[in-house]
Write a structure and sequence with these properties.
alpha/beta; five-stranded mixed sheet
Length: 133
């Protein structure tokens, strides 16, 4: 069985500030797809949640049915896994979208990783932010 791993990251220069996200989707540890996008003025958390949602959409586009999602945002992972409450209205809306999109998968997991294990998505964030000026 093929193994699909989604790594997402986001950053903002200022909080809120100029923000972007990076997404890397791997199939059996080989890069399958990627995306990076400038988000305008957002908080870091808004970027992290948007990155996960957009990454899940990419996985759906590839008709993936079993997906492991990884992020270095402990807050994002704990909120997605119902360990922490979500108070922010914007984030509540994005989480609902993520839960709705998750119904497209037979299995989907959300795991926190240390930053050094998320270097490709992190690099994408900074490339996009540098390009945005």
């Amino acid at each position: 069985m093929d193994k699909y791993s989604l790594f997402t990251d986001a950053g903002s220069r200022g909080n809120p500030g100029k923000a972007s996200y990076g997404i890397c989707l791997f199939k059996n540890d080989k890069l399958l797809d990627f995306d990076g996008r400038y988000l305008g003025i957002k908080t870091n958390n808004q970027g992290e949640f948007t990155a996960l949602k957009e990454g899940i959409l990419i996985a759906i586009k590839h008709n993936i049915k079993n997906l492991d999602c990884f992020s270095d945002s402990e807050l994002l992972i704990k909120q997605i896994n119902h360990e922490y409450k979500v108070k922010d209205q914007y984030l509540k809306g994005v989480i609902k979208e993520i839960y709705d999109l998750s119904e497209n998968f037979d299995t989907i997991t959300f795991t926190h990783v240390r930053r050094e294990y998320n270097k490709f998505a992190d690099k994408m964030v900074n490339i996009v932010l540098d390009a945005a000026g």
